[in-house]
Write a structure and sequence with these properties.
mainly alpha
Length: 210
């Protein structure tokens, strides 16, 4: 009886999982226009970072408030991310597939740059969700955090690659159920990193209206 009580650790855990899945579904719906993926991702992390601290409120309301506040910057940031990956992956594909082994050094260079970009961009949207800055400032902070936290960055990169792999293997269907839980796990890491920087005064936290 106590095990299935609404306040039991088991039921609280189940509720948390369901809420993260619901969060992922909201992210998916608001990402359908494609150009809004940046704003949707920042809004998702804004909620999940609070959930990781057990400070969540009205999830739907908080998500759409974050979506609205991040819309302009989110579109700009997302377009930059797309351009960067298009250039890096385009060059990587060319030197690997088209040009063969003749440019092995350039293949390695673009591969390293693509991996670094993936790590930096893993920090980018949580940084937008947690801090107040310009578009350039968000990129700068994301880069600094990626370089200064190599262990956490490696863990985040593995998580990102695993998420992409699962989405690809299962024909994209899991994107509805994976993004929220994966983002919640990443939120534990991001909160740990951000809290240290906030305490030291190195970054300023975004002040959202209640």
């Amino acid at each position: 009886m106590g095990l299935f009580n609404l306040n039991s650790p088991l039921m609280r855990g189940v509720n948390k999982v369901l809420m993260t899945i619901y969060m992922g579904m909201l992210w998916f719906l608001c990402s359908i226009p494609s150009v809004t993926i940046g704003a949707s991702t920042a809004a998702m992390y804004e909620v999940l970072l609070k959930m990781a601290k057990h400070l969540e409120g009205n999830i739907t309301k908080d998500f759409f408030r974050g979506f609205k506040s991040n819309l302009k910057q989110g579109i700009c940031v997302w377009l930059i991310v797309l351009v960067v990956f298009a250039v890096l992956l385009g060059n990587l594909w060319y030197y690997t597939v088209i040009d063969g082994i003749r440019h092995a050094v350039l293949t390695i260079v673009f591969l390293i740059m693509a991996v670094l970009a993936l790590v930096v961009f893993s920090y980018l949207f949580p940084v937008m969700a947690r801090t107040e800055n310009s578009v350039k400032g968000h990129f700068q902070i994301a880069f600094i955090l990626a370089v200064r936290n190599p262990g956490w960055s490696l863990m985040l990169m593995i998580d990102q690659l695993l998420t992409l792999f699962l989405i690809y293997i299962f024909a994209y269907a899991p994107i509805l159920f994976i993004m929220g839980p994966m983002g919640y796990l990443q939120g534990q890491v991001f909160n740990h990193i951000f809290d240290r920087l906030l305490d030291s005064g190195m970054i300023s936290e975004e002040h959202a209206a209640d």
